Amino acid sequence: MYWAPRHIPEIALAVWQHIVLSVSSVAIGLVIALALGIVCARRPRLYAVALTITNIIFVIPSLALFAFLIPFFGLGTKPALIGLSSYCLLILLRNIVIGLRNVSPDILDAADGMGFSPRQRLWRIELPLAVPLIISGARIALVTVIGIATIAAFIDGGGLGTIILIGIDQEYPEKILVGGLLTALLATIFDFTLTWAERALVRWR
Fold it and tell me: Are 137 and 92 in contact (CB under 8 A)?
């Protein structure tokens, strides 16, 4: 009984591993999706292809995707990061492209009239105006990944999923409950924080 109070350091380490794994995956996915989104925003056919590929990845069951990566990258954090980053791409790419496409043509014409180059217009006008939608995509992706990251315990990826998995193996309900509740709490905290940031950016814009 009362396993949690006697294992605070172990739980804290699992929480930290879960945060690092989830945030790192979304950060990697955001870099890839941003580069892809900038290219796809003005190319509908390329965007359709990219959307189809990322959608196919997104619907693959997480355990199956991790198992597919094991022969190439082994067990541990690396395949977990690759798999979780892949799940982010659909959400992030869609929001980035929508954000860039929703910039008013009048604003773009005004930027052209002021002599902005396409690169200057992208970095100084389009991306700043698209930031609220990009943050919204990052919020959804992060909440999604926090949940999926529990499955990474099956491939030795660490995090709160390890506590849940051990609890299942040992038929120890308290471990399962602690891991599940902390995962839900992390998702709620990040959802609230990024929702606040998104609203603040909308007001600033």
Answer: yes
Total Cβ atoms within 10 A of residue 158: 20
Rg of the chain's alpha carbons, rounded to an integer?
20
**Structural domain count, the chain:** 1
Tokens standing for 178? 């602690």
Q: Are 81 and 156 in contact (CB under 8 A)?
A: no
Q: pLDDT tens, 62-119?
A: 889 998 999 999 898 999 999 999 999 999 999 999 999 988 888 888 888 888 888 8
Encoded amino acid at 42, one letter: R
Distance spanning both ends of the chain, measured CA to CA? 52
Return the CATH number at 12. 1.10.3720.10
Question: Are 148 and 119 a contacting pair, CB within 8 Å?
Answer: no
Nearest-CA neighbor of 137 among 182, 198, 78, 79?
198
Total-model pTM = 0.91
Residue 125: other Cβ atoms inside 10 A: 19
Quick one: tokens of 38? 């900038």
CA distances from 54 to 64, 67, 110 (A): 16, 18, 34
Residue range(s) defining the domain that contains residue 34: 4-204
The sign of the dihedral angle between the CA atoms of 146, 152, 153, 157 is negative
